[in-house]
């Protein structure tokens, strides 16, 4: 006869799939021993650039029990965002696929809350917190630990069945659940992501110098974009998908079914000249519910002007 942890674990996974999550894996909530040293070295090398928040809450990043008191399990989930329709790059600036539509933080958090509410109706109250790329959670480490996928050379989590175009989310809770096993690394000798990166941001297997990454320059960086990026941006005005686009495992990506992730019509119709004439009013209208609003109008305008200099 199945024990309670097994019954709960099976129930959570079945519900996760019903709520539209691609994958669901479980880990024991404990200190991430292997990640502690790696994170320390990464920060010492200043690979986080101006992302000073990465230096905060070092212990909390590595121990979920400090985020959710009494937590016993970390439930990792993945949610597909691969678009059905790609925005044309012809005479256009590029935007990362994850930012085509509504802000995933809110969309997925709402789904998670509904999922947990349904779980509590069936198994009773339990303590939990939900996370979607929020708070100091090492989401890739937990997803890897839970067997959802492996960390590729580009430091993205990759899954054999569906590649890497998905968001990660976590439910950290005090339920005793059955932990899953890690999966094998299937990158082999492939170097496509390393060779394709125009800024040499992937410094070695699984280690990315964030300060050299186009996504960092166009989203995280608040100051002027350094000259280092001149003529290397390949028309990316927000984010960058190069290392994912070239990954052989992403040939298995299939379009997401989430209506809220459909591209905004303006994004589908705009061309370079339209972007160059972007106003604050239009920015607010197009990106009202989008992750792009994080750069603010001034940040996106800065990116567009920087790209324009390469064209002169």
TrEMBL record:
Major location (coarse): cytoplasm
Listed cofactors: cob(II)alamin; [4Fe-4S] cluster
Catalytic activity, EC: 1.17.99.6
Positions that bind [4Fe-4S] cluster 2: 197, 213, 240, 243
Ranges in coiled-coil conformation: none
Signal peptide (from-to): none
Active site: 133 (proton donor)
Cofactor notes: Binds 2 [4Fe-4S] clusters per monomer.
Domain 4Fe-4S ferredoxin-type: 175-207
Catalytic activity: epoxyqueuosine(34) in tRNA + AH2 = queuosine(34) in tRNA + A + H2O
InterPro entries: 4Fe4S_Fe-S-bd (IPR017896), 4Fe4S_Fe_S_CS (IPR017900), QueG (IPR004453), QueG_DUF1730 (IPR013542)
Binding-site residues, [4Fe-4S] cluster 1: 187, 190, 193, 247
Function: Catalyzes the conversion of epoxyqueuosine (oQ) to queuosine (Q), which is a hypermodified base found in the wobble positions of tRNA(Asp), tRNA(Asn), tRNA(His) and tRNA(Tyr).
Quaternary structure note: Monomer.
The protein's name: Epoxyqueuosine reductase
Organism taxonomic ancestry: Bacteria, Pseudomonadati, Bacteroidota, Flavobacteriia, Flavobacteriales
Gene: queG
């Amino acid at each position: 006869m199945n024990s309670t942890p097994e019954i709960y674990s099976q129930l959570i996974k079945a519900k996760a799939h019903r709520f539209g999550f691609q994958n669901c894996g479980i880990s024991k909530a404990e200190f991430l021993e292997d990640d502690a040293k790696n994170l320390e070295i990464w920060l010492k090398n200043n690979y986080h650039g101006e992302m000073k928040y990465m230096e905060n809450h070092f212990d909390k990043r590595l121990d979920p029990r400090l985020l959710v008191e009494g937590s016993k399990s970390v439930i990792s989930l993945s949610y597909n965002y691969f678009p059905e329709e790609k925005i044309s790059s012809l005479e256009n600036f590029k935007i990362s696929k994850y930012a085509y539509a509504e802000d995933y933080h809110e969309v997925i958090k709402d789904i998670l809350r509904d999922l947990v509410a349904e779980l509590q109706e069936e198994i009773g109250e339990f303590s939990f917190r939900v996370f979607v790329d929020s708070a100091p959670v090492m989401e890739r480490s937990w997803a890897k630990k839970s067997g959802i996928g492996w960390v590729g050379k580009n430091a993205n989590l990759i899954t054999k069945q569906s590649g890497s175009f998905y968001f990660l989310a976590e439910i950290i809770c005090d339920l005793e659940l059955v932990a899953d096993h890690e999966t094998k690394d299937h990158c082999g000798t492939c170097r496509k992501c390393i060779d394709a990166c125009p800024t040499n941001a992937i410094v070695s297997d699984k280690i990315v110098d964030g300060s050299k990454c186009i996504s960092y320059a166009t989203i995280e960086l608040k100051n002027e974009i350094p000259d280092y990026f001149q003529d290397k941006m390949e028309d990316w005005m927000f984010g960058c998908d190069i290392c994912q686009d070239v990954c052989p495992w992403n040939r298995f990506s299939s379009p997401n079914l989430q209506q809220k992730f459909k591209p905004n019509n303006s994004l589908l119709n705009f061309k370079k000249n339209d972007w160059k004439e972007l106003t604050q009013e239009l920015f607010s209208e197009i990106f009202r519910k989008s992750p792009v609003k994080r750069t603010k109008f001034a940040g996106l305008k800065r990116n567009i002007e920087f790209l324009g200099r390469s064209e002169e």
